[in-house]
Design goal:
By secondary structure, this protein is an alpha/beta fold. The protein contains twelve helices and ten strands.
């Protein structure tokens, strides 16, 4: 069992999308409706204000309202996304997330000055942030968006810190995920961010996944996870094959607009992305 403090992070978590109304303001009523349905699907918890939640387009006060809204709707583990470029900003975001009841924080690698983002700089950033963190931290590696990749060896070094409890690796690179799993100690939660490699990653020890496909077809993602854990690999392979085109379309091909359109088609509140 992989745990972040008292937070069980083994299983499938959706990176929640952020509904907006016709004026482009947060639609917390629509979010609550989505969460009411998600609560019946066997999901292990939720990520609020991640990449699929358009975190980069949200104000700090909006992110705080979203954390609070998710916390009101569920007692399941809540992971709060932190998308900050400085230690000062990241620390403030952590305090806001903790105040609204988040159980852990997913902290993206700083990236704006990517030419300076050496492995040494990334290591120092996470270690200093973790030293004063009010919440356990998950590293967020998404190099296709940031242009910055944290190396498996760096992840292994950071895993020794008691407040750095896992990683969401959204690179889609199975070899990198496998190397992280080889290097980190037992109990360090490796969560993949790509449904395309969810099945093989679970086979070699990943704790679960935070995948956009789980926003649209949560039952199928949970069923895949359960099939692997129960040893029903015929069913797991079938589910993985069926999930592959969904995962490809709602992320790599169509982006946030496609993901939200898929939510609308599935009967959830999707709507338009923020301009």
């Amino acid at each position: 069992m992989a745990a972040v403090g008292t937070l069980d992070v083994e299983g499938i978590l959706p990176p929640l999308t952020t509904p907006f109304d016709e004026r482009g303001e947060l639609d917390l009523t629509a979010l609550a409706r989505n969460l009411e349905r998600y609560e019946t699907t066997g999901l292990a918890g939720y990520l609020a204000c991640g990449s699929s939640g358009e975190a980069a387009l949200l104000e700090a006060a909006e992110r705080r309202r979203l954390f609070a809204a998710v916390r009101r709707a569920t007692s399941r583990p809540l992971v709060a996304g932190v998308n900050a470029q400085s230690l000062r900003q990241a620390a403030a975001d952590l305090e806001r997330a903790a105040a609204e009841g988040a159980d852990a924080a997913l902290v993206v690698t700083p990236y704006f000055y990517k030419g300076s983002m050496s492995q040494e700089v990334l290591r120092a950033f996470y270690l200093e942030l973790a030293d004063g963190a009010p919440l356990p931290l998950l590293i967020y590696n998404i190099p296709q968006n940031t242009g910055v990749a944290i190396a498996p060896a760096t992840v292994a070094e950071l895993a020794a810190h008691e407040r750095i409890a896992g990683i969401k690796d959204s690179s889609g690179d199975y070899a990198a995920a496998a190397e992280i799993l080889r290097l980190v100690p037992a109990g360090f939660a490796v969560l993949v961010g790509s449904a395309a490699i969810l099945y093989p990653s679970l086979l070699i020890g990943a704790a679960g996944g935070i995948v956009a496909a789980a926003c649209v077809v949560p039952q199928a993602c949970v069923a895949l996870y359960d099939a692997v854990r129960s040893g029903d690999h015929r069913r797991a392979r079938d589910l993985a094959q069926r999930l592959a085109p969904v995962a490809r379309m709602v992320t790599a091909e169509l982006g946030i607009a496609g993901l939200k359109a898929a939510l609308d088609l599935a009967g959830y509140a999707g709507g338009a992305p923020r301009p």
